[in-house]
Known about the structure:
This protein is of the alpha+beta class. Helices cover about 40% and strands about 20% of the residues. The protein is built from 29 helices and 34 strands. The strands form 10 sheets. The protein has a 7-stranded mixed beta sheet, with helices on both faces. A hairpin with a 3-residue loop joins strand 14 (about 280-285) and strand 15 (about 290-295). Helix 3 crosses helix 6 (about 160-170) and helix 15 (about 410-425) crosses helix 16.
Amino acid sequence: MKSEEFKQWAEKLNLSKEAIEEIQIIRSSDPSRRVGGGAKNSSGIFPSKKMGVSIQYESSHVELPTVYMLEFDENVLEFYDQPPSLKLNKVGWRTPDYFVIEKDKAYWIECKTEEELIKLSQKQNPKYYMDKERTWHYTPGEEYCGKLGLSFFVVSSKDLNPRLQRNLVYLKDYLKGKEPDLLCVTEIRQTIMSCPGITLQALNDLAGNEFTIDHVNTLIAIGLIYVDLFDSLLIELETVKVYLSKEQNKSYINIREQAKQKKTQKITVSNGSMIMWGETLWKIINHDHKTIFLASELGEHNSIPRDVFETYISEGYIVGIDNINTMDEPKVKEIIETATEEDYEIANRRYEILKKLERGENIKDLKETDRTIRNWKRDFNLAKELYGNGFLGLIPNNKGRGNHKRKIPDNSIELMNKVIDESYETIKLKTAKIVHQEYKNRCKENGIRTPATYQTFCKEINRRSLYERKKKREGSRAAYEYEEFHWVIDETTPKHGDRALEIAHIDHTQVDLRLDIGNGKTKKPWCTFLIDAFSRRILAFYLSFDSPSKKNEMMIIRECVRKHKRLPQLVVVDGGKDFQSIYFDSLLMRYEVIKKVRPAAKARYGSVIERLFGIANKLFFHNLQGNTQIMKNVRQVTKAVNPEYYAVWTMELLVERLEKWIDEIYDNKEHPALFDTPKNIFNESLAKTGKRPDTYIPYNEDFVLMTLPNPDRPERKVYPGKGFKLNYFYYFCEELKDPRVENKKVEVRYDPFNIGVAYAFVNKRWLKCYSSYYAFIKGKTEKELKQITEELLEKRKQHEKGNQVTDKMIADFIFETEEIEKSLWEEKISNRAKVLESHLEEVKPSVETNGNELELEFERDETDDTDLLLFGRVGDE
């Protein structure tokens, strides 16, 4: 809203001055914090078309669906993530998840899962509570907002409709599309008019030259035809019914309800018949024209008037035993689930014996007594009455026999568990043997005469969860592989999406292969993959010698658009710094792609792409000469088998071969989880759910400019006559001759696929600059440019490392020279001192005393024609 619109909205709601000031602060403030997912939450950013900015979410289970609802709700005018913190009574500062402005109200939102809210409501002096309408409330928040005349709502995971959520995700691409032409709309509406309630699959089958499934989806999204998005799933084309309008849908529902007739359940009223009344099984033991006499499986007896009995049957309160699936009864399920193969073998033998005796056959070598046979018949008949299946009574109940109570005293068991908690399950990693001895010592101190044996002690440890033991002893990362899988039973959004190009994963891996980069040098490249989660198809890949950075992400996005003309709706990344680049986020925001960050150290959240790394290594990289599998045991590697010696592949050849492997082998190999090839799943999904042409991205210079990364130092100096230096090369254009630009710093970007060009931001626009290599690479295809650029950059980098003289190298050389000079000078002084000392020993002094004077004379060595005195020379007399 503009300032004037906001003023009119506030006057319409008659808001107080304090409330208006509070809302103005929220509208003018940035998010109060940057969200990060918890141990099991996936956070991310949602590109909001309504707000024109990225909206943060901290959980993909509650907050992301809430953002979808706010984005597509026509009553919502604005919404803000992580608004300024509120100072709440008895709580302190608290940051709500969102602040929402609707046409007729404004409110804060706190998002929680239902399970979390239940736990919070069970604490002492709970701040959260549920009212009679099963709506959650947050008392401190409501008290604060009530003073301002605003509201505070708690959104629970139970409040969200998973079907509506999935449908909104499905239709998101069509909300920004153009309305089909009139002829197409007329054809679709006439088809529905001739067959109201036609399924979406039938419409798809009728699609042809007049209309496509994309046109149908667009009309659903903009409301020109009607589908119940709250109850239907658009991905299930066979069950989705399409109407002209909501009123037509409602009318047909009413007609079907009137057409339904209650059918009286036929029950034979005879002695011995079984019925189910409520949740209790009853047997008709007698009856007449007025009364029905019943006996329950629990031994209870009851009588009911015949007319009431028939009324209960017609209303469905009483049903016949034939219509009851007795296999679903808890007792029956318990008998079946706990029976072993040996139990079934015994039951089969008993059943065969009873059948033979019933037919009057004589059984030889029958070891069982008559009493045992009578017991079997009794159990068979009782089970037949109770469960409708006499065989269940013949299954032996061996598990219930014997004394299952523990022989160790309760105080000994209690102390044993206490010692395990305090001494074994700690980061000291004590052995069970040592902890058991500690337990025995404490038993003596506490007067317990019968401590558990070491074997029993170990069994008690193994009773506990392996995951919890590992977590307490070695930490959560070590225990992660033993963590229980989270099986999603409730209806939620599928973790891999409903269709192709809905969810994709991006990640990097260093390839297990050494490449020849010339001059006898080799290097391992990095590979970045973008894989579609639904079909497991590799959408794009990017090979580079550089370690992962924002450049890799920008290039993988560019490759995806080049190959598929569009981007996935949501990308899943890890928490690495390279994925937190403002340039990467801006690129996703520009093309309305949602980013989801998976939790740290939780490999299962990225299992799709982690599995791809293993497949690529096993089926491709490990089959090439120069692969580095052997380097896992580096101490055993000799020169004769060192991969560096056998490196023959170059970057150009590897890119070409990897692309061929992806297109011809991986794409056409049946995936074990899908029972089909990634290529078939991908193409069938697009045919079924629409190709969504409105999401196509033109691969032109504007798009390429958006994907260009900036260097680590984004600003570079413009040298007169040379231009600016970037990645070991100079780039120049005519505009850089301007004296106002020379010797100044300008923001630059480079093209990792084309070393011949770079861009400089001069006079508020991006200028294309050329390097000295431009003439050499002019006319090359982008594929050729990509391969040439990567190898040329690496060779130049290696050359610069070996030959470039830097200021640091000059300073180090001068420092080293001074150290040498100092050492030489000290050595010279030392040598002169030694020479002087040797000459002084050769001179013999004679001392004569004359009065108070002391005369010192030196005897001259006649063989020496020089006199040495200290460091000088004494001449002849």
